[in-house]
Design a protein that fits this description.
The chain is mainly β. It has one helix and 48 strands.
Amino acid sequence: MGRSFWLACLLAWATEQQAQPSLFSPLQQGVRGPVYCFLEDSVSSSFYIGGGLIGAYDMPLSPGIVRWDGAEFHNVGCGFEYDCLDTNTSQVLATPVRALEHWQGALYAAGDFQQSVGVSVNFIARWDGVDSLWKPLQNGLSGPVYSLRSYPDGLYAAGWFEYANDTLEVNGLARWDGSTWHKVHDLPKLDPNDINRINDLAFYQGDLYIGGEFGGTNGRLDIAKWDGTAWVDVDGGFLGVFSTVNKLEVHDGLLYVMGSFANYPPYGHPNNPGSGIVTWDGSIWNDLGGGTAGSSNASVYGNVWIRDTLYVSGRFTTIGGVPTGRIARWDGHRWCSLVPPDYFYPDIGPIGVFRDTLVVGGSFTVAGPDSINRVAKWVAGSYVDSCQVFVGVGPEHEDAQEPSGLSLHPNPAEEVVTVSRGGRPLPGVPYVVHDALGRLVGSGRTDVVSTLDVRYLVPGAYAVTVLNSQGAVFGQGRMIKH
């Protein structure tokens, strides 16, 4: 267990990392500090990045928030806590931005911060883009904000606070109408001995839902709704000491509930409707392909839809029975991983979309074989991943020809495979390779003679998907690596 042992371990780890495919690329040199939230502004074609970051590399400070225009980063006002001229870049912002939203032509940011360039804003602020100053919303809120939601009647803020504008008791849920704060349906304290810890909200089927970390009476455990008359439970809520609802999203007639709950011990309760992510149709839960499993209680923290396909991120290491590097895709029937296990280090956080491209953030400085500082975009075939390839590739000696017409020769193979479709070679086309569990293990382009290198693959069964210029599936085939 001496020096030679640790050197051998380090060499093995480095070799394993180099063997992984490059699936994400950096946004310039990245940002200095962890990323907690994203917001796409399609009107200005801008992408806002919030968190505990001090700013982007090679640019003036913009504590807590920066803007990406597709080519470079920009400040967003003077940010929070420090002033625009502060040159201290050695620390992470301890009071991060946790939520971003647009409402009535202005950008709103919220989180743990309390001032901007010496002006007290108290956990939430507005920026109209006219000058460098973030403006307060009256006297703000009394504690951290975890979610902002824009609706026609106002900007809703959810979090771990008790008061708005110093004296208005709102208990973790408040509405801003552009000039003043309001209560929301007289939400009471759900636990008389503690503040309401609300992480998100959503309107669904005419009812207002809230989710978070609260142990309420009458079954209002981590999730509750306003039914037009009273705050009531949602099928008994979520059981378990560690249960928490992190995100609520409405999509295609369903309410998606994501969080740190599970239906297996020791992190959850068998009566919970699922693990990590479930859907609610107003009366029935669905566990969405079995949900998550893995480290801690298999939490889901981030989500985004791209063309009606759901992508999620979190602390889970398995989803739908498929091992993953904590980011996965739901195609409506099954879960598949976008990356191999342990792809990001130390951790992935939120996910978003900018110009139809998936973007991930977090505290990671390593993504597979690459050094990437905390924010990256998906480059492995745009939207194509293992959800568009069958998860299992069948028995090893089954015919490798798929109905799509993609042929792989030789098959089985040891070093290279020639790809063709309908008897025609396919030189210079993008491809992705998945293993028998549906994990993405390789990507690239075929060479001038339509071959791809498979020497790096371990023996076993694989699926190869060829993409067209728009990133859509052009053909699929199966192969065996000897």
